[in-house]
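Appendix B, Record 12. Input sequence as logged:
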Amino acid sequence: MQRVERGLSRRAFLAGGLGLLGGLAQGAPTPVPGKAFSRVWDLTHELSPNTPLFPGAEPMRITTLVTVRQNGHYGNRLDLWEHTGTHMDGPAHFVDGGATAEKLPPFQLIAPLAVIHIHEKAAKDPDARDTLHFPGFSPEAAEFRVREREIVGVGVDTLPLDFGPSQDFRTHPVLLGAGKYGLENLAGLGQVPPPAGP
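Logged structural output:
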């Protein structure tokens, strides 16, 4: 820490600060017309080694590197498959040369949420067979949303965007190939209130 402290001069600090301000001015936020929100919902799951994974993926590993008692501060190394827990599939996930998540325009990441409830249907058919069976979007439903609705992306509270027993994952290329994104393993969708009228 002393070496770092010595290395930081007032001049270096000011130069870095001015560079940051220049970067902020250059990437100044732009308003998103027609999008105003009064509430924000956290739809993420907390990650742990017990987080459900797609078959074949290794569980998350947490390795403690330093502790407060021994080192004066606490820190871990996290080793995990990037599609663990609540995450975003950017177009690059299934489209060669497609945009990665950080290349998506910020306004595309803020949008109204429409929740499709199927809990009653799921209660009648829990489908606890050995094959992966959970709801997702069929390629036809994805195509409809891309062509007929002004969506920025879709999300599911399960592992993939495709339905469970899918072998070809055709829904991903339909959505991601259209420049949309997919959110997987969302939490608490059942608690999101319905929209407040037209």
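The two ends are 57 Å apart (CA to CA).
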